[in-house]
Amino acid sequence: MLSFEAFEEKTIKRETLFTGKIIEVALDEVALPMGGTAKRELVFHPGGVGIVAITPAEKMLFVRQFRKPLERVILEIPAGKIDPGEGSHPEVTGARELEEETGYRPQKMTHLASMYLSPGFANEMLHLYLAEGLEKVENPRAMDEDEVLEVYELTLDEALERMKTGEICDAKTIYAIQYWQLALAKGRECHG
Amino acid sequence: MLSFEAFEEKTIKRETLFTGKIIEVALDEVALPMGGTAKRELVFHPGGVGIVAITPAEKMLFVRQFRKPLERVILEIPAGKIDPGEGSHPEVTGARELEEETGYRPQKMTHLASMYLSPGFANEMLHLYLAEGLEKVENPRAMDEDEVLEVYELTLDEALERMKTGEICDAKTIYAIQYWQLALAKGRECHG
């Protein structure tokens, strides 16, 4: 196993190109471990939370929304960015987003995984939680003003069908469906 | 189901902030479907390919490398960006990256999934392929000059252990391990 030093690319110079409300973009000049230099294009992002929420009727919650970078409407699990101050409590972000987007409040949140989405250029980390004990809230917290979305409750077969048609097409949602399939497959394994 | 028009955010003005070798960054002012305007921070990326490669000895191939946005070394499945001209043949990119990074050439590539990684701000799509019939190449194609990496062949249990320790921590690699678990679980299901 090579040491960290054999890999590390030390920043010689960083140029911050853009500081937005969500992302920060930088261009680094780095010293390569084998000598020489290279440029690295970097996007910094506060991270987010995705919620795997299965209702008592064995349906998973999805939201249908427009995604500007794709110029299309897709179906995803409920998710949201981590706001300043929530960084150390992603389950708080998760419960808030779930309620805002779907009107359900979870009694229990269990951490499933944390994953970098595009480690080649971005530091965005997504935390995934299983939301259990879902209860419909009478007066749910309001969504962000610029969000339009539709809530769906789908069975596993319906969700797999939406993957085939391409409506479900993002990494966190595909993870959630695989998680569900694995949980069910474990229940069906032969123990005899 | 709401119509596309109920969701669409039309671009009023686009400001291109950065055009790099890998990403392009833009700031859009959009017209919201319910009236009013909002800003959207956007990253455009050519997309990539990730390879789920399992050797005849039932081990999966991983590469250990430094990721500048994270300032750390992580363990991932072999992957690479789609080069101009390869856009319509991601399996070509995949086979090339697999050979460059691991020295294995696949006899067969099967498409598993295509997924947006961060649809909230980026249009990057990752295509995942299963590489079968792996053969060691005597003189594999050379890697990009600025890449340092170490190849690992791990059993499923070893890979799950590396997820626990956090060395495996990115979405495509977690997808690959879940895919492997599901394929094995399906083989173990009760059919009686």
Automatic annotation (TrEMBL), chains A, B:
Provide the species name.
Enterococcus asini ATCC 700915
Domain named Nudix hydrolase is located at: 44-176
Q: Quote the protein name from its UniProt record.
A: ADP-ribose pyrophosphatase
Instruction: Extract the SUPFAM superfamilies matched here.
Output: Nudix (SSF55811)
What PANTHER family does the annotation carry?
Answer: NUDIX HYDROLASE DOMAIN-CONTAINING PROTEIN (PTHR11839:SF18), UDP/ADP-SUGAR PYROPHOSPHATASE (PTHR11839)
Cofactor(s) the protein needs: Mg(2+)
Which key words tag this protein in UniProt? Answer: Hydrolase
Q: Which Gene3D superfamilies does the record match to this protein?
A: Nucleoside Triphosphate Pyrophosphohydrolase
Task: Read off the InterPro entries from this record.
Answer: NUDIX_hydrolase-like_dom_sf (IPR015797), NUDIX_hydrolase_dom (IPR000086)
GO CC terms of this entry: cytosol
The alphabetized list of GO BP terms reads: nucleoside phosphate metabolic process; ribose phosphate metabolic process
Q: GO molecular function: any one?
A: hydrolase activity
What Pfam families does its record include? NUDIX
